[in-house]
């Protein structure tokens, strides 16, 4: 009020008010969203059903855009799921007390991702320059073995496959030997980055594409059916597909020695049950 009584007071007051509003927007999230025309509500407890219904009904009747901020805990109500949120991202039948899978199958034969993860751990123990990179799927890609035993050689970039590819390229530029383990279907997100940041620069990045092909109960969004067609035209990129666990391990060994972009894609589920643990590494010819 005092400013408005001075010469040019209205202008000064207006500028001051806008500056205060902008400054507030950097501190309070509600103001930031409202700056862009959104009404911000929350955060609210997403497990309080009565409160959630109240807010959703309010949003339903609103005549303007609303951002409703809801906080939830993955697995809430089942303690074993709260403790292992990634494991329960997509669960097969399991014991509700222990959380262990009760699905049928020969558990003596490892999944391809576990065979890859154990082989990677063996390589990484011998060479500290070997690092593993995941996009929020450590156990799903088999990198949990590396995470647990060599955490200094493990990196989780979150749900950002594009960044995983660029991050791997950057590490390769500094002399590291990065392995980016990503589901085949999600590698589509990093297509541009694989071309521009890895292949064109001819960097020694190893890309392990888990769940190549059809994936059954993982669901239609996880089918890895486009990787071969998408990445085959990429210049300077070698693509390989193993016939069993032993060949997968040897392809990884070959990729580390090759010194150029190398992509290995393999299916979801169990391997062929061939003996591969403890066997000598074998470099395969690259055509």
- End-to-end Cα distance, whole Å, is 79 Å
| Topology pattern, helix = H, strand = E | HHEHEHHEHHEHEHEHEHE
Described by the principal axes of the CA atoms, the overall outline is globular
| Largest sheet: number of strands, sense, barrel closure | 6 strands, parallel
With strands numbered from the N-terminus, the spatial order across the biggest sheet is 4-3-5-6-8-7
Radius of gyration, rounded? 25 Å
Percent of residues in helices: 25-40%
Query: Any low-confidence stretches, pLDDT <50, length ≥5?
Result: none
Number of strands: 8
Given the helix and strand composition, which structural class is it?
Answer: alpha/beta
Strand content: 5-15%
Mean pLDDT: 87
The total count of helices amounts to: 11
Kindly describe this structure:
This protein is of the alpha/beta class. It is 38% helix and 14% strand. The protein contains eleven helices and eight strands. The chain has helices at 9-27, 29-35, 49-61, 79-83, 112-126, 138-141, 144-149, 161-173, 191-199, 227-231, 245-258; strands at residues 39-45, 66-71, 130-134, 154-156, 177-183, 206-210, 238-240, 262-265. The strands form two sheets. It has a six-stranded parallel sheet, sandwiched between helices. A two-stranded parallel ribbon has the order 1-2. α1 (9-27) packs across α2 and α8 runs parallel beside α9. The model has no long low-confidence stretch (mean pLDDT 87).
